[in-house]
Amino acid sequence: MGRARKLLRSKALRLLAVLVVIVYLMNTSLLAPKPDGPPQLLAHRGLAQTFPMEGIGNDTCTAERIYPPEHPYLENTLASMEAAFEAGAGMVEFDVHWTKDDQFAVFHDWTLDCRTDLKGVTRDYTMAELKKADIGYGYTADEGRTYPFRGKGIGLMPTLTEVLDRFPDRYLLLHIKSNDPREGERLASILAELPAGRREKLTVYGGDQPVAELKKKLPSLRVMSKETLKGCLLSYLAVGWTGYMPEACRHTQLQLPEKLAPLLWGWPYQFLNRMERADTRVIVVGGDGSEFSSGFDTPEDLKRLPDGFTGWIWTNRIDRVAKAVLPDTP
């Protein structure tokens, strides 16, 4: 009986060893083809003023703590997006908020108080009223002694339609800041008027409810929310080691914190190849997911990426990073 148990245990160990080898070979990036070329760059908010990240929370007025300005652009404006694309961005991210007259204003904060000379939220105003706001009013780099953009931001808050019209062939990432399903429904009605080929270059992320409503109205649109991200990653962790791609991971977008990405089967190249075959875009963001809008903002930051990485990376300083990774950038 003891000999039989030893034999069974030996066979079980051999089978386990074989399984480990199979899992390793299926998921090692050593055997995966590495795509050529530089990383692809996503410019967060366009070319924007940046600020120290320490102590940032959802309610922090970041306009009151910017670094001394190195360029004249304000986030989420047509000019800042144009500058980002000219600097080398392959995609620009921007934020949308509903207005009193049922339009979408392009603006970052939940309230207008921090950056502008208005109070309240965009839903309190018509788009015509928001066009009169000075969106550079609240920016200061010296604790309020000077306001370098005050008076220079009047009329610069764009509508979603203006952005779509200005950049008809560009990749854009739209961020719904609320969790109101009506915003998803309204956004779907706007995007449904675009040609299908144009919608292919758009991705929408944000609250679970508006994103779910948007996906219901426009099933072919690429979207992401906490719910869709969780559904994909949990499914992939369960079965991804086999090479099978769960349905939740198909034709979507994953914004992966750099510190969590190595936990995924096949990271980086097997994973990226699988997601590409599934028509899913992977964007690597900085940190572990708990930091506020963390990205790869300096040439030194880029050293944290896997060698030869050519996927999408999130940056708050497209002007700096593009020069480090794109050979033809002036």
From TrEMBL:
<protein>
    <submittedName>
        <fullName>Glycerophosphodiester phosphodiesterase family protein</fullName>
        <ecNumber>3.1.4.-</ecNumber>
    </submittedName>
</protein>
<dbReference type="GO" id="GO:0008081">
    <property type="term" value="F:phosphoric diester hydrolase activity"/>
</dbReference>
<keyword id="KW-0378">Hydrolase</keyword>
<dbReference type="GO" id="GO:0006629">
    <property type="term" value="P:lipid metabolic process"/>
</dbReference>
<dbReference type="Pfam" id="PF03009">
    <property type="entry name" value="GDPD"/>
</dbReference>
<feature type="domain" description="GP-PDE">
    <location>
        <begin position="59"/>
        <end position="325"/>
    </location>
</feature>
<dbReference type="InterPro" id="IPR017946">
    <property type="entry name" value="PLC-like_Pdiesterase_TIM-brl"/>
</dbReference>
<dbReference type="InterPro" id="IPR030395">
    <property type="entry name" value="GP_PDE_dom"/>
</dbReference>
